[in-house]
Design goal:
alpha+beta; 4-stranded antiparallel beta sheet; 3-stranded antiparallel beta sheet; 11 helices
């Protein structure tokens, strides 16, 4: 974990606990929203930061990968923005997962694939999004979210908050209170989002839906996937043989921080394209 926190591009040490300052900022926003009749008194009481726990980071071992690297997770329970993030997730959840590429769970994926057959020049292959949460740009995600909210005709039936109000609160949860403690030291996350917030997974999905739509629509015909299904940061696709590298190169022109293909990365136990016999099935090439 110390190695992860030593990356200055991702984290920086703070000299003091920013919780009191950010609590005043949140209280000011909530008071304004109540005054404008956008939240009721009961809503304000739920959102009001009565607990001031500093979020804490811990590592969850990825036992399925070589070297057992750690997945960093931040526990936001009891932090000043936790209830706000939970409420925003409820408001925003209906606009996520409407894409044809979205996978809800393994059952829905099996249903999607039950009638799919491969042509002789095709393979079933996967891509993995590298460090999705810490690679997702917050400003761009907020821009995408604003566009989606402006198009959401049902938003007014779910909340009295305006699009600008939601963006303000979302930015507070994802960027302003993006700090955590480890071994008595407080750090601020400099880029991306922290896994563990009730809002970050949803925000990452919003970004990925935009990214994949752009990537697929602009992919050269020769390497354009015939099928693309994504569950959070794992993508299953049908692509022509010999085109995996070309597709990876294209994906990285859309956002060079995100994509890489497992068959050529040493941390994955997968067979490279072209080395899988018809009788052998691996996670990435069929």
């Amino acid at each position: 974990m110390s190695t992860l926190l030593s990356d200055s591009k991702t984290c920086e040490k703070l000299d003091r606990d920013p919780t009191p300052k950010h609590k005043r900022e949140l209280v000011s926003i909530l008071q304004r929203l109540e005054k404008e009749d956008k939240i009721k008194k009961a809503d304000k009481q739920f959102l009001y930061p009565t607990s001031e726990n500093v979020p804490r980071i811990y590592g969850s071992p990825k036992i399925h990968k070589d070297g057992t690297p750690l997945r960093s997770i931040v526990d936001f329970t009891g932090s000043i923005g936790y209830n706000v993030a939970k409420s925003l997730a409820d408001i925003l959840s209906p606009i996520v997962g409407q894409s044809e590429h979205h996978v809800l769970n393994s059952k829905s994926l099996a249903e999607d694939l039950k009638d799919v057959t491969l042509e002789g020049d095709e393979i079933l292959n996967s891509h993995d999004v590298v460090a999705l949460f810490t690679s997702t740009p917050i400003d761009l995600t907020l821009h995408i979210l604003k566009e989606r909210l402006n198009e959401d005709k049902d938003l007014k039936n779910r909340t009295l908050l305006t699009t600008d109000d939601i963006i303000e609160l979302t930015k507070f949860c994802l960027a302003t209170v993006a700090y955590f403690s480890y071994s008595g030291q407080i750090y601020r996350q400099c880029f991306g989002m922290a896994m563990g917030s009730p809002l970050s997974s949803l925000a990452c999905n919003i970004f990925m839906e935009w990214l994949e739509q752009k990537a697929i629509s602009t992919a050269p015909e020769s390497c354009r996937p015939r099928l693309w299904k994504r569950y959070v940061d794992d993508v299953l696709k049908i692509i022509r043989k010999g085109q995996v590298d070309n597709l990876t190169d294209h994906l990285n022109t859309i956002d060079p921080t995100c994509y890489e293909t497992p068959p050529y990365h040493p941390q994955y136990a997968c067979s490279p394209e072209g080395q899988t016999s018809p009788a052998t099935k691996s996670r990435d090439d069929l």
